[in-house]
Amino acid sequence: MRLHVGCAMWAHASWQGRLLPGPLPPRERLRAYATWCNAVEGNTTFYATPTRATVESWAAQTDPDFRFVVKLPKSITHEHRLTGADELLRSFLEAMEPLGARTHALWVQLPGSFGPSDLGVLAAFLHRLPRSYRYAVEVRHRAFFAEERSERLLERVLASRDAEWVPFDTTTFFAGPPTSDAERDAWAKKPRVPRRSRALTGHPIVRYLGRDATERTVEGWRSWVATVAGWLREGRSPTVFIHTPDNADALTLARRFHDEVRSRVPDLEPLPEPMPNEPQTLF
């Protein structure tokens, strides 16, 4: 039984010297992060496919049980809209190979314009993908949340490939007006869709966006604590990513979420002990 938790990134300026040792060279930051959390969103791959050497460095900095949920490049999902991108996909998969089993799922985040009429394209794309990976799909078109028929059609497409539907829960964030620059920036960028909490597979993935105020973030995730605890009791292995607009405390919040679930499921394996935020010395 295992719950993976993590953040949207493994390096954040405000973490260095406060939560993580700092300053750390780029090739040591993931290693330090992995003592706090046991998973991470691979958002950087959305913007460009990394070199194989870079991915080898990610593998070298993490234990075999650490997990990445790696986003497909936008050149595949947004520019080509899943068609005519076989060579781009091949290059991406070759670059990801060094992660091995650390790749929890390949994450297909689709643009808000990708709607029910595009489901045939999604189905064809998923069925061309290699069977050696799990897949998770995030949609943002409102029809998938507002129309039962569209929701069921999408679930059918995902079930045919044993792919998960990734909810991005922003309901707590949009429950009140923004109160900081970071919240105002996120207000204009984040999707507004209803909360969805139905798992399709044994490996559900949740993205949760809270507020910069810790108490509001924690209050907003209460239903997720109950849902995730229930999934664990059912034998599922969920992954939860905690976001806030500024992400300054996302590391501690991810661990707190894990602790709250573990209080309900005592057999849950604990997270590793965090690396001290100051380098150890001999004297």
TrEMBL record:
Region annotation Disordered: where it falls in the sequence: 264-283
Protein name: DUF72 domain-containing protein
Source organism of this protein record: Nonomuraea turkmeniaca
Lineage, highest ranks first: Bacteria, Bacillati, Actinomycetota, Actinomycetes, Streptosporangiales
Gene3D superfamilies: Protein of unknown function UPF0759
SUPFAM superfamilies documented for this protein: TM1631-like (SSF117396)
InterPro entries linked: DUF72, UPF0759_sf
